[in-house]
């Protein structure tokens, strides 16, 4: 009797755990406009403390934790790039992400300066960051 109750409780707890983990696994996505850092920011400290480098694939986002990896897709040409969030911004209304120059060039944002994009989380930042 005790064994059957224990087994039932275990299966119930396991099922609840699986439902909870599946419910939280939906990827975060956001759409809006992307821009990129001006050359004058090269070497300046980002909000995470590391210097901005135009040759790295990094980005600024208002709320995503530092170290989060996102895929940014240019909605005008379909090109995408993975970047790591290491700064806060953009500080311009209507924009959702500021890209490093390398990332902007990869998806063609560098030509127009601003482009409509979709931002999707690929990997959450680790808890140690």
Automatic annotation (TrEMBL):
GO terms for cellular component: plasma membrane. It is found in: Cell membrane. PROSITE patterns: PROKAR_LIPOPROTEIN. Keywords: Cell membrane, Cell wall biogenesis/degradation, Lipoprotein, Lyase, Membrane, Palmitate, Signal. GO terms for biological process: cell wall organization; peptidoglycan metabolic process. Its EC number is 4.2.2.-. Residues 29-119 form the RlpA-like protein double-psi beta-barrel domain. SUPFAM superfamilies: Barwin-like endoglucanases (SSF50685). Pfam families: DPBB_1. It comes from the Bacteria. Belongs to the RlpA family. This is Probable endolytic peptidoglycan transglycosylase RlpA.
